Amino acid sequence: MKIFATGAKWLFMLLLPVLLLTASIGWAANSLWLYRHGLNTYDVARTLADSGLELAGSELEEIYAGLISYFNSAEKDISLTVVMDGKQVNLFTPEEVIHFRDVKGLIRLDYGVLLGTLLYCLVYTGACLWGWKDRRRLARGAVGGSTIALALVLALGAGTLSGFGQLFYRFHLLFFSNEFWSAEGYMLQLFPRGFFYDTTLFCAAAIAGAAITLGGAGGIYLKRTGLQTS
Question: Which of 16, 109, 138, 184 is the most exposed place for a label (fewest CB within 10 A)?
Fold first, then answer.
């Protein structure tokens, strides 16, 4: 029984950072205000206009909202159109459509991992509170998992600040089986590299905030009950 409880605690500690990571990614992917931030910060409208596609800010927000809707829909391929030279045309090239299909697959994978880790963490929390009736075990797990999460955030932050371009490139080589992520079209103008840099920092901040909150709560509880955090 003790070995099982110890293994369950370590698994909780290892999965908690994964839960926070996947939650932050899911939050970022569905946050229209984050897309709006990139739109305004990197003057996407002007960049597109220089390429011959003039769109108002409200039209661009509709495009980003359409992408969010696509990521959460059952549609295989994205289909967004814009008016150009008085004609309704597809916004994305066939290569870009394939890339968004791949991105959607990764987001769905993120949702799946998020759900799985959330279920385990909830079950473990329930077991600690009502099964073993040991809140201190849960607190120690929260402190340990949050510490691991913060260590990962520091590593991610260091990599992002020191060489985001290389990190970004290697990410695409690892998770995509083709190079359509660099397809020539409007996709790269809608999503400049700075957008992904800011999104990475947002995810790191979200993970750090959640880890500090959970780990802090666990640490305070352990301190008040006079126990060590190890």
Answer: 184
Least confident of 88-97, 156-165, 206-215, 219-228: 219-228
Asked if pLDDT for residue 227 goes beyond 80, the answer is: no
Helix 135-175 × helix 193-224 angle, to 10°? 170
List the one residue out of 34, 19, 3 whose CA is nearest residue 125. 19
Per-residue pLDDT at 187: 96
Per-residue three-class SS string for 6-58: HHHHHHHHHHHHHHHHHHHHHHHHCCHHHHHHHHHHCCHHHHHHHCCCCCCHH
Ramachandran class of 88: left when φ > 0, alpha when ψ lies in -120 to 50, beta otherwise = beta
Cα-based distances in Å from 128 to 56, 66, 221: 53, 42, 14
**In angstroms, how far is the first alpha carbon of the chain from the final one?**
20
User: For residue 125, how many C-alpha atoms fall within 13 Å in the half-sphere facing its CB?
Assistant: 11
Number of Cβ within 10 Å of residue 220's Cβ equals 12
Q: Which two tokens stand for residue 125?
A: 């929390």
* Tokens at 199, concatenated: 């999104």
Q: Is 228's pLDDT higher than 90?
A: no
Q: How far apart are CA 31 and CA 93, in angstroms?
A: 25
CB 82 within 8 A of CB 59: yes
Quote the DSSP letter at residue 91. S
